[in-house]
Amino acid sequence: MFGNFNQEARKVLVGAKREMHELSHPYVSSEHLLLSILKTSNEVSDRLKKYGIDYQMFKNEIVKVLGKGSKPSEWFLYTPLLKRILKNAVIDAKDNNGIVSINHLFISLLEEGEGVAIRLLLGMNVDIDELYDEFISKLSSKNKNRKLLIDEIGVDLNKRVLSGKIDPITGREKEIKRVLEILSRRCKNNPILIGKAGVGKTAIVEALATMIVKDEVPLSLRGKRIISLDMASSVAGTKYRGEFEERMNKILREVEEDDDIILFIDEVHTLVGAGGAEGAIDASNIFKPALARGKIRCIGATTTEEYKRYIEKDSALDRRFQKVKINEPDKKTVKDILMNLKKLYESYHKVIITESIIDLIIDLSSKYIYGRNEPDRSLDVLDEVCARVSIRESRDLKEYRKFNKEIKNIIKNKKDAIMKNDFDKASKYKNKEYELMNKINTLELSLFKNNRKKVTKVDVAKVINMKSEIPIYEILNEKKSVVKNIEKEFKNTIIGQDEAILNMSKIFKKIKLGYNDGLYTMLLCGPSGVGKTKLASIFGEKLVGKKNVIKVDCSEYKEPHSISKIIGSPPGYVGYNDNHYLLENIKDRPYSVLILDEIEKAHSNVINLFLGLLDDGKIKNSRGEDIIFDNVVIIMTSNTGFLKTDVGFNKYTNENVKLNENFSIPFMNRVDNVIPFNNLNEKNISKIVVQKLKKLKTKYQDEIIIEKTDKLIKDIINCSEYKTYGARRIDKIIKDKVENVVIDKILESEDKTCIESLT
């Protein structure tokens, strides 16, 4: 309890014990407390001196009435009266930040109206009522000037406006007008702003504070203060049960007593459950009666999702607020917002921003940055672009730093030469110093005059590229060299599929140079082992890089419930909160190639799931979030219709009939391109074998000689059964037969030997 007493009050309590000990009394009571107060210099002792009462006189009176004890007591016992005085002083001090002073102790002593101290004062002709009125009025006048708890915990938005800490707000006239209407109501005057994250809910309240400061609000709201209350600060420090409720009630009392305060609670859903540990009442239930009475005005702000999750469930809390929906602004409003803030960013970052750059930021951020809302998305890009440009070193700045480094070395060498009495050398260094100083001064003038750097389109493109990992093709034309030789690179790896490679090369160029809009889908069809998956993988690696190629084996999606592996588990099922599903990979890597290998093996429910995706370019996951596929290429492979070797690959009528038997017409209509692969003939297989043997020869070139003889190639071709398996078995044959023979030859002979056949 004594932790709330200030230093003077503590000294008085210690002094009371000392007085009791000196007088050899068995207890500490009100007379010892007053005696201790009179011993120190304070307002009480100064006032009692006017009645002719001082320390020694009052002590004599105590001795006269009570006498002195024979033996000092070893114990310090407080009388019930003194305990009540101390308790009441603590209660009275709650209006003074809870700190007990000497005045609180004296007022509490007078309030009790009994005890030895009071009787002695009455006997000395002291007017107790006059003293009480005088000190209580002094305390009241001090309390009027004290800082409110709401001012300590909250942030006054009006003061932030006056100090220029709030950015100017543009647009949102309709929403602000609606908020003003609700605040002007007689009861239920509590608006709650509901909208997606980043649409400007808090900015609307800041705009309202700006209007109040400028007197642009109705008469009923003029002179009001908007104070932002943070629930985390309100809970902080409330260690014991009841402290939080007491603090919240005090805040509400202060708001009720001061009609000029409008409370603003950002993330208002945090009211639900705040401070409600171990069965205590949470903040929402403390606020409900005050909100219902209409004695306080409160503005809340929260996202749509959190409103539905926390506030809408509590109908009693929900009905006390009036909903104001805040939608994402259109492009024109976003441009007005950015143009209004342009000067602030130019001044802060020392850059130049043109109107065309603002337009480019809005267009590119809406096209390439997913999962964010305007205007937060465009403002974020604008700020980062300006920061990037501001820290970029110019040629003059690099020279300036270089000269500064040189001049430090010259000055050091000059001082060393002087210390060694080598004045000729020192003179040379001095001349160099003058020359460099002239250059530095010239550069400083140049940098001072031309210190503003211009934001370019490339700067914007690079920032958005870093944020989204998507190349901004229309600006960053750095991919032409990769595109030129792509067909040749495909042919070096894939043998015998010139027509398919030609088609995929055209698609690759179109996508890589940025001439394709939205999702692109391909279906590669042909028998097993002809290079469909291999070409799809190479296509993906060249287009987006190896880490952004996502390969899915559709044989793992044979069951109807396999859909959960793609979109995630539905609510209530195990794994709902896990992020290990296909769409989460696409969300993390929006610029990627998705390979659906052997799609005909997937369940029809899984295939039908892709219908909406192929049509709209987006799909919802189990949580209802839109996953955008605008920068994704989907490559599907299929053996449908080509499992029997007697089916001709160039007979397109047969091919289409077989595909339509396995895939629905709506599905086939949504595929952008169907690319057939040819059967591999002996000539194609021979080229593949030569290619594989070349790699093997390079691997063992230091140990053994491998000759690519016709007999060796023929032996491998005969073993491969290419008419049935394509080129798939060639690697296995070379590994099991050729490589085993190579290892045996190495072990048998120390000299290099030649392998010409499998026998």
Strand order of the largest sheet: 1-3-4-5-2-6
Distance between the termini: 99 Å
- Poorly predicted runs are 645-654
Characterize the overall form.
Answer: elongated
What is the top-level CATH class of the largest domain? Alpha Beta
Number of extended strands: 17
What would you say this structure looks like, in words?
With 759 residues, this protein is α/β, with parallel strands linked by helices. The protein folds into 5 domains: 2-146, Double Clp-N motif; 151-325, 3-Layer(aba) Sandwich (Rossmann fold); 395-454; 480-676, 3-Layer(aba) Sandwich (Rossmann fold), CATH 3.40.50; 682-755. 55% of the residues lie in helices and 9% in strands. The strands form 5 sheets. It has a 6-stranded mixed β-sheet. The protein has a 5-stranded parallel β-sheet with strand order 10-11-14-9-15, with helices on one face. Helix 19 (355-368) packs parallel to helix 23 (457-468). The relative contact order is 0.05. Mean pLDDT is 80; it is low at 645-654.
Quick description:
It contains 36 helices and 17 strands. With 759 residues, it is of the alpha/beta class.
Task: Supply the key terms.
6-stranded mixed sheet, alpha/beta, 5-stranded parallel sheet, Double Clp-N motif
What's the topology here?
Blueprint: H1 7-22, H2 30-39, H3 43-49, H4 55-66, H5 80-92, H6 102-112, H7 116-123, H8 128-144, H9 149-153, E1 155-156, H10 157-162, H11 173-183, E2 191-195, H12 201-213, E3 225-228, H13 231-235, H14 243-257, E4 261-266, H15 283-293, E5 297-303, H16 304-311, H17 315-318, E6 322-325, H18 331-349, E7 351-352, H19 355-368, H20 376-390, H21 395-419, H22 423-449, E8 453-454, H23 457-468, H24 480-484, H25 486-493, H26 498-512, E9 520-525, H27 532-544, E10 549-553, H28 563-567, H29 582-588, E11 592-597, H30 604-616, E12 618-620, E13 626-628, E14 632-638, H31 652-662, H32 665-670, E15 673-676, H33 682-699, E16 705-706, H34 710-720, H35 722-725, H36 730-748, E17 754-755
Parallel strand pairs: 2-5, 2-6, 3-4, 4-5, 7-8, 9-14, 9-15, 10-11, 11-14, 16-17
Antiparallel strand pairs: 1-3, 12-13
Helix pairs in contact: 1-2, 2-4, 5-6, 6-8, 14-15, 18-19, 18-20, 19-20, 19-23, 20-23, 21-22, 25-26, 33-34, 33-36
